[in-house]
Amino acid sequence: MPGQLVLASASPRRRELLEKVGFSVKAMPIHIDEEPRPEEAPETYVKRMARTKVLSVVERIQQTLYPTEAEAQRLRSGLMRETPLRWVLGADTTVVMDGNRTCGKPRDHEEAVEILSALAGQEHCVITGFCLYDMRKSKEGLQAVTTIVRMKPMSRVEIEKYLSVGESMDKAGAYAIQGVGAYLVEQISGSYTNVVGLPLCQVVEMMTEMGATDVLPF
């Protein structure tokens, strides 16, 4: 049985994606300031958010499991060969319209209508940044993956009907490609799981490169 992978996220979708392919996941949600910096590029933003989430969780784990400086130093130096938690994964997703206009989760119903109206009949990019951290070696990997999505044309009535399903408010772009919102998507180019919230192919590739064999389920 694989060791536990710590997921620095409250997203049930990311956890479900990982568990579906066999990972043993320990979710540790973290609350951070998610305000973009002025003129910050979308890819830079999601990578920064993913890394910040991971490092915040790493600090929490270290303070809980290794409270003394001697234990923390042994962990950082690689002398502590057996650690109950070693690998931490975090991710952040945003939707980019018109080349540089970003949108995250809608704040309310009207903003969800506004977002879906802007996406209707158009292409947009879904960008997910993810960070993988090895607590034994104090080493990290950081990457962003982009998928292009084309939505079907939608009237205000159709948008309202979709929003009544109730799956939009905690989703970047106000739609769930893995849910009822799948029928709104005409075409995608790139990773499907990236649109759900985590590009599994690229995540597993990074795990393999960084030697995370103890958490890989295959």
Structural overview:
- The protein has seven helices and seven strands; from the N terminus they run βαβααββαββαβαα.
- The protein is an alpha/beta fold and 218 residues long.
- A hairpin with a 4-residue loop joins β5 and β6 (139-151).
- α4 packs across α5.
- The chain is elongated and about 60 Å long.
Count of DSSP strands: 7
Low-confidence stretches: none
Which fold name fills CATH's third level, the topology?
A: Maf protein
Number of domains: 1
CATH class value: Alpha Beta
Q: How much helix, percentage-wise, in residues?
A: 25-40%
| Percent of residues in beta strands | 15-25%
What is the ordering of alpha helices and beta strands? EHEHHEEHEEHEHH
Query: Which structural class best describes the helix and strand composition?
Result: alpha/beta
What coarse outline follows from CA principal-axis ratios?
elongated
How many distinct helices?
7
How would you state the average pLDDT, rounded? 92
Distance between the termini: 10 Å
State the CATH architecture. Alpha-Beta Complex
What is this structure's SSE topology?
Elements: E1 4-7, H1 12-20, E2 24-27, H2 42-65, H3 69-77, E3 87-97, E4 101-103, H4 109-119, E5 123-134, E6 139-151, H5 156-163, E7 185-189, H6 192-196, H7 200-210
Parallel strand pairs: 1-2, 1-3
Antiparallel strand pairs: 3-4, 3-5, 5-6, 6-7
